[in-house]
């Protein structure tokens, strides 16, 4: 047996940042190297995502997560025992075959991702490499990503106080990752100050640590964020752009998009008009899930009408190669959100990043709303050169675990790493910033 052969896989129930059950896992190799992870879980999940075993994510110790945990230490261990951990794609293929379903719903995508990630960490440990180096192509320069940081939350993460799920700061003018993060931290604090000055308590904090104020309209949230940027003495558009995750699947009723907070029911065409109106008035650089997950026609229209912005598919693509390829062929969207747990293995997530990069789609590596204190996502962003990363707010330790890892890597790597900065967005998105104006 070689030193990098998998010798043991253990699993246990753990908690995610919402206090809901998830899977913890350790992979050990013959030579003594090891890797350990606790996997994340989403709330605004797409219908086409790989399937977790979670009992609907409600009961700690329920059969769902228990089933996933026993799958890890039973069938999945059996499938990867003795395999070389440094051959990630063979390990991932064995995991997928052991499950045997396309959506990984028999043993659970959470069980499979846990083994996949812990294997990558164990392999890196065995090779004496940091994870970002172990997952990178041989000649690739590490790339620190442009962060997008959640400031205001609505939708499924904040009791649906507003319809749009995420309002994020994108520090397009920052010259380093550290400066980018510092600016976002200032925007977060200043936005909370604006609420306090208005007499609205900012104390309500959403699932990802974003502010969850009750506001009358989605535009009011864009106004609030813009006011926060200015109060932080930064320039909306030049220093900080705005990204939104509309998460439109969440309020699509079958034929209409229902903006409940505003009591309006819109057709896809009308929703695109609404978004175009926002783009005229606010420095919006990126729009995620502008339309619902299966509204390919609406998405195609949006891609044409909102051209120039990063149009990011999350529920639309669900980190699935075939769905991304359909988008590429049909000229739908121009960017993909990559969440490893939507697809179940690191190999599959990596293939999506490559296909996007080969076809001029930008890539944003993303955490989930139910996160853990792990920081491997930061290493994947750097090693895979995704260019952008989204991990929620800048408060709460399950988020700062990723930011802090990136801060450390930037300091450690110095000149040996690139910083993506605004170039991670399409050049055309950058130009729209100059034309953006406020009411
Ligand atoms: O929709 C999203 O992009 C994510 C993160 O904000 O949320 P969830 O993990 O709930 O899908
Ligand atoms: Mg999303």
TrEMBL record:
Which reaction is this enzyme known to catalyze? Answer: (2R)-2-phosphoglycerate = phosphoenolpyruvate + H2O
Which intervals hold domain Enolase N-terminal?
6-135
E.C. number: 4.2.1.11
* Pfam families with a match to the protein in the record: Enolase_C, Enolase_N
- The protein's required cofactors: Mg(2+)
All copies of domain Enolase C-terminal TIM barrel, residue ranges: 141-427
Alphabetical keyword list = Cytoplasm, Glycolysis, Lyase, Magnesium, Metal-binding, Secreted
Protein name, please? Answer: Enolase
Specify the species: Amycolatopsis thermalba
